[in-house]
């Protein structure tokens, strides 16, 4: 699904990704853990084409991200849903309208949007919040809206950048349970970038440990953290 080979990335003269190799297979919940500044977000942004990389290769569905033009990138991003630490919802729009946004961008009909948004609200368990503005939701509910929006176009992969870092431990558990459920039910590959070991231990089957732009270790979660 996602094949990363020998990727180097520089900001000016600073090398922030150093020979990163990673293979993320279909249907996996793959964790990338490391301290702040390790290069995790930069790597995610390279995967979805928000950042350029000059050296190495990133294949998503066998397509080299760097070689895609704007139109091809837009198509590719349909396959890659993304969620963030601070949810990135539009405050002036309702829950329904937030989830409908990607569908409107791709010119779905009113009926199709209505049907799809209701399905998604049901999937993430917030049907009753449909007409509410984000400020009246809890953190966990906001992340559920963001997840629904990220899934609107039926992506094959969900990229999660510190998706539970702003949530309390119980809410974190329930969001992780939802992600696991989505992985199982819909077969979506999930990439979890995090600095929280609990996140890795709770849902990730494989894990890569990053530090200073490098992958220190990579493998099955059980094998890597057996001794810790
Ligand atoms: P995180 O660790 O949560 O990814 P950062 O503090 O590293 O957050 O980055 C927050 C934002 O600031 C990002 O958009 C990142 O691209 C940008 N940023 C981080 N470090 C620098 C820097 N040295 N120069 C310019 N922009 C930076
Ligand atoms: P992480 O997500 O693991 O916290 P980042 O990918 O955000 O790490 O950052 C990796 C390194 O790149 C950090 O040293 C950060 O300061 C630097 N960095 C991130 N974004 C930028 C940017 N836009 N410009 C310059 N430096 C950046």
TrEMBL record:
It comes from the Bacteria. Residues 2-228 form the ABC transporter domain. Keywords: Amino-acid transport, ATP-binding, Cell membrane, Membrane, Nucleotide-binding, Translocase, Transport. This is Methionine ABC transporter ATP-binding protein. GO terms for biological process: amino acid transport. Belongs to the ABC transporter superfamily. One of its GO terms (cellular component) is plasma membrane. It comes from Romboutsia weinsteinii.
């Amino acid at each position: 699904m996602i094949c990363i080979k020998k990727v180097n990335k520089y900001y000016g003269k600073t090398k922030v990704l150093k020979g990163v190799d990673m293979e993320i297979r279909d249907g996996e919940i793959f964790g990338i853990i490391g301290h702040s500044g390790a290069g995790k977000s930069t790597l995610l942004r390279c995967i979805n084409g928000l950042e350029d990389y000059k050296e190495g290769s990133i294949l998503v569905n066998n397509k080299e991200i760097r070689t895609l033009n704007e139109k091809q990138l837009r198509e590719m991003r349909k396959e890659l849903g993304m969620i963030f630490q601070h949810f990135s919802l539009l405050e002036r729009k309702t829950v329904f309208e937030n989830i409908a946004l990607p569908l409107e961008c791709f010119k779905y009909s009113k009926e199709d949007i209505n049907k799809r948004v209701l399905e998604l609200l049901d999937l993430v368990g917030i049907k009753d919040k449909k007409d509410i503005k984000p400020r009246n939701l809890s953190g966990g509910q906001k992340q559920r809206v963001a997840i629904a929006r990220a899934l609107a176009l039926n992506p094959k992969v969900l990229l999660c950048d510190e998706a539970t870092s702003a949530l309390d431990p119980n809410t974190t558990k329930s969001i992780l349970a939802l992600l696991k459920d989505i992985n199982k039910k819909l077969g979506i590959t999930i990439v979890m970038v995090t600095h929280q070991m609990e996140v890795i231990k709770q849902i990730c089957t494989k894990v890569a440990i990053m530090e200073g732009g490098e992958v220190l270790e990579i493998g099955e979660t059980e094998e890597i953290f057996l001794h810790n």
